[in-house]
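Suppose you are handed a protein chain with no further information: no name, no annotation, nothing but its sequence. What can you learn? This example shows the usual starting point.
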Amino acid sequence: MSQLRYYAYADHGVHLREINSYHQAVRVGDRIECSGQGGWNRTSGEMKKDLYEEIDQAFENVDRNLKDAGGEGWSQVFRVNSYHTDMSNEALGHMVKNLRKWMPNHQPLLTCVGVAKLAQEDMRIEIEVSAYVGT
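A reasonable first move is to predict its three-dimensional structure. Written in structure tokens, the prediction is:
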């Protein structure tokens, strides 16, 4: 496993690594695989109260996570898996709005899954991605 490089972005990413024993991203050859990102403040870990703001923040956290692992951000993402406690048309519409904002030049593979609960008590969305970064 020495060829794998693991990453945990500053503040909340490091905090999650220390208390839950996992990293935010791993570089595997020409790919970056990201742990699920919620709509938390990256410094304090506080979750956004408004659902749309939480979705927006989760997308921002994915971008920061990819860049922390040496990627360019959303432009390299080819797969998105998202987990939602709210599968309403409005919530999913806001998800699509963010997909278009963050990836205006391509459309990734996408799986959206409705779940009863996520890991953090007040969490309503979690986004994990795979990105191709080349060699």
